[in-house]
Design goal:
The protein is mainly beta. The protein has 2 domains: 37-147, Immunoglobulin-like (Sandwich), CATH 2.60.40.2310; 150-460. 6% of the residues lie in helices and 46% in strands. The chain is built from 2 helices and 39 strands. It has a 25-stranded parallel β-sheet that branches. It has a 5-stranded antiparallel β-sheet with strand order 1-3-8-5-6, with no helix packed on it. The longest helix has 25 residues, at 2-26. It is elongated, with a radius of gyration of 30 Å.
Length: 488
């Protein structure tokens, strides 16, 4: 009986101790010496387009004491006039009251900014303070965002199965886009038949998800950047986390045109889309061509340049880091690439396609190939990547087919000695770019491309992408080697 009575009393006492312990932990401290700590003393947003929300930033708020605390209020100092919105513990607003943090625990504060236009061409700073009040202690976290007014192009039409679009240059109209303010495109900005869009040096074109620029049949695109002020095509997320994220927008889409009305792209940077440039004959074989010079096309989830029965003349071109083909020239056409660098060490997914592909046929409705003439030439160029074979073709009989690789560095498994179409080419030597991970495809001091170019080709393209004369001893690719000041 004695043992049973002892057990009878021990169990309730043990439970009571647990309850008392829990209640002690649940007591909210009013100690005025307790303070919060934060993951950062400021939250900084990269440039934010006015009227558009940013990504959400967060601040970690820590209670490093062994006591539960109550934050009486978390508020934006500018209140309802603030451009910022906060969310704490699932509650949103300009002020949030009575947020508890357990001992040695933490919470997230989510912060978002939406900035009103100020009719300003240059970026401007917008600040506020996030104010915490705990046991009469006031603590602050600075909020800083750079606002940028922009010209917004919002798609308002759709025809058949085409993507939604807005006409930005109508028939018989020439429209100029300047560097005064960035352009932000939702849907497709369309150049109508017989319309012309001229994009001037320094202009910044930003595309929302699945958006693009579209030159319809007989529409003309002229991109006129400069070495000092290139035209930039990229996504509309400017925060640092998105600087090198591919697939943020769709493509630049060029259709066929009239003879003498060529598409022109000079000194442009085209980054982070799905396809950099798609150039194709849509209703009829094209009578015009794309002239592309001094341009960088990089970091696309699909293809850098994709063509169907088109014509391209390219000089000082870089096509790099694409998830599928670097350049795919399909259904015939006429293509000349001089001092071009194709570099494809894509690592974000498996790439089973080569850096360069070309074929000489179309498929009819029954799936039968129709031969189409093709003429492809690469001179003083680099075609390299992480695959063992970076040039592939599908060629059928019945069409004039010409291809030539003249003084090029090539990654390939084929025996170049058995092909007369490869003249003085370097096989499988690493090009030794200065910094592939940071998109620097200039040759370093040990590069095998130095001095290996053909002079007659270099004379046609005497200045490299950096403005350096290459005619004394031309290198392969878009860049001429220049000794760094810190090199011995």
């Amino acid at each position: 009986m004695k043992n049973k009575n002892t057990s009878f009393w021990i169990i309730p006492i043990f439970l009571l101790l647990i309850i008392i312990s829990c209640r002690k932990d649940d007591i909210i401290s009013t100690d005025i010496t307790l303070k919060l700590t934060f993951s950062s003393d400021s939250v900084v947003f990269d440039t934010v387009f006015s009227s558009l929300g940013t990504i959400t930033r967060n601040v970690m708020v820590y209670n490093t004491s062994n006591k539960r605390i109550n934050i009486s209020s978390i508020r934006l100092e500018k209140g309802t006039q603030s451009v910022y919105k906060i969310n704490a513990d699932g509650i949103s607003g300009n002020i949030i009251n009575d947020v508890e943090i357990a001992a040695n625990d933490s919470i997230y504060i989510l912060v978002r900014a939406t900035i009103d236009p100020q009719n300003a061409n240059s970026p401007y700073v917008v600040e506020d303070d996030l104010v915490f009040l705990t046991n009469n202690n006031e603590q602050r976290v600075k909020l800083v965002a750079w606002g940028q007014d922009a010209i917004y192009i919002l798609a308002d039409q759709q025809v058949g199965g085409f993507p939604k679009f807005k006409i930005v240059a109508d028939s018989n109209e020439t429209v100029y886009w300047t560097a005064e303010k960035p352009y932000v495109i939702y849907g497709y900005a369309l150049i109508n038949s017989y319309g012309t869009l001229v994009i001037e040096e320094g202009a910044n074109i930003h595309f929302h998800d699945k958006s693009g620029l579209w030159a319809y049949v007989d529409g003309v695109l002229k991109v006129r950047g400069s070495k000092e002020k290139p035209v930039k095509f990229q996504g509309d997320r400017l925060d640092q986390d998105y600087r090198n994220i591919p697939g943020q927008w769709d493509r630049i889409w060029l259709m066929e045109g009239r003879q003498g009305f060529n598409h022109e792209i000079d000194y442009a940077i085209i980054r982070n889309g799905y396809i950099g440039i798609q150039a194709e004959s849509f209703l009829r074989p094209t009578s015009n061509q794309l002239n592309i010079t001094n341009t960088i096309i990089e970091n696309h989830t699909g293809i850098g340049i994709f063509t169907r029965l088109f014509a391209i003349d390219a000089n000082n071109l870089v096509v790099a880091n694409n998830g599928n083909y670097g350049i795919a020239l399909t259904a015939g056409g006429a293509y000349r690439f001089q001092h071009t660098t194709i570099a494809n060490n894509w690592s974000l997914s498996v790439r089973n396609t080569p850096a360069l592909f070309y074929n000489n046929f179309l498929m009819d409705k029954l799936g039968h190939p129709i031969p189409v003439p093709i003429n492809v030439s690469f001179g003083n160029s680099i075609i390299y990547g992480s695959n063992s074979e970076e040039i592939e073709s599908e060629l059928i009989a019945g069409a004039d087919t010409l291809y030539l690789f003249d003084h090029c560095l090539i990654k390939t498994e084929r025996d170049l000695n058995n092909f007369g179409n490869f003249d003085n080419c370097i096989k499988n030597e690493i090009p030794q770019f200065k910094d592939y991970s940071n998109f620097n495809f200039r040759p370093d001091s040990l590069s095998p491309v130095i001095g290996k170019g053909k002079l007659s080709i270099a004379i046609e393209v005497p200045i490299d992408l950096d403005g350096i004369d290459r005619t004394a001893s031309p290198d392969l690719g878009a860049y001429q080697y220049v000794k760094d000041p810190d090199e011995e």
